[in-house]
Specification:
Blueprint lengths: L5 E4 L1 H14 L5 E2 L1 E2 L1 H6 L2 H7 L5 E4 L2 H9 L5 E4 L6 H9 L3 E4 L2 H9 L6 E6 L14 H10 L3 E7 L12 H12 L5 E2 L3 H6 L7 E2 L25 E13 L4 E2 L5 E2 L4 E6 L16 E4 L2 E6 L7 E4 L11 E5 L5 H7 L4 H6 L6 E4 L1
Parallel strand pairs: 1-19, 2-10, 3-4, 4-5, 5-6, 6-7, 7-8, 8-9
Antiparallel strand pairs: 1-11, 11-14, 11-18, 12-13, 14-17, 15-16, 15-18, 16-17
The structure holds pyridoxal-5'-phosphate (PLP).
Length: 356
Amino acid sequence: MKPAVQATINLAALKYNLQRVRDCITSHQQIIAVIKANAYGHGIIEVAKALTELDAFAVARLEEAITLRQAGFSQRILILGGIFNTEELLRAIKNQFDLVVHSEHQLCLLELINNSQPINVWLKLDTGMHRLGINPELTQQFHQRLNRINFVNEIIDMTHLADADNKSSDNTEQQLQCFENHSQSNNVSIANSAGILHWHQTKQGWVRPGIMLYGSSPMLKTSGPDENLKAVMTLKSRLIAINQYHQGESIGYGSTWTCPSTTKIGVVAIGYGDGYPRNIAPDTPVLLHNQRCSIVGRVSMDTLSININNIENCQIGDEVTLWGEDLPVDEIADSANTIAYELLCNLTNRVDKAYK
Ligand SMILES: Cc1ncc(COP(=O)(O)O)c(C=O)c1O
């Protein structure tokens, strides 16, 4: 039985995008692949397997790191959010995870336990993101305290960029300057995907690509192909009804779209219950027979409707592409007033995944 909605994950495209990261850096830099949130919706285990040549992965939470270890990955696994109590710290140490330390609270937890197993600490400086991170003025003090903890092995200074998606913002330069003024380590990590692609100075030490690995652009108003990236996920569904309506008849909940003339409407078996955004702009495209046609009316839980007046020989069961290889997810995200990250992460369990 063919699933109603399928996300095909192209692992060759993932590897192509990894090579794209490599082409942007030098042999002095290292890559830690960001595979949090189920590898941005692509499947953490399958993605980690495809990237197994890498030495390090980053996830947001302890649970995600444990999932990877239990699946047999022996690489360095960094927990970007760090840990929040002693029990979590002990589990992290037992599993040899690398930890971000972004607060006094986390430093105190490290200071308070008895442990002999080494652990690597990524000290996060808040250079302007103002989300997680220590006041950069405290960097030296944190280093002194971390150096007194006998089981702390490497200390990597890191920061996260708030506006690197915007080439004309001054903030990235300012964050870099702040980082350079305060960092106490030769071992550092700054660049996310936007840094890797467009901010040369941020490419120091470890680079942390996320979205670019999945083939989508980190930059404002551009799409993956503009950055020479290949879409990893292609989301497809199929036509489950073809109906003809007359001028003046409206389509779907709220009757928000009315046929300007006799119109052939295709009903596609995907809706917000699968993660397709309900707040999509009118006329957002899908692909049917490799041609663009527009979504009309509101997206429902299980279906959406498209205008197929200009598509010949449509049949029930025909494939419809919602985003992917020939229709960048960035473009659809823009139509939903969001970013590709959110669309990719938001697919629900009802969506089947196939790997190729
Ligand atoms: C700390 C940190 N580093 C790196 C990344 C990867 O960012 P991007 O997906 O934009 O490359 C993220 C993602 O949110 C992050 O939180």
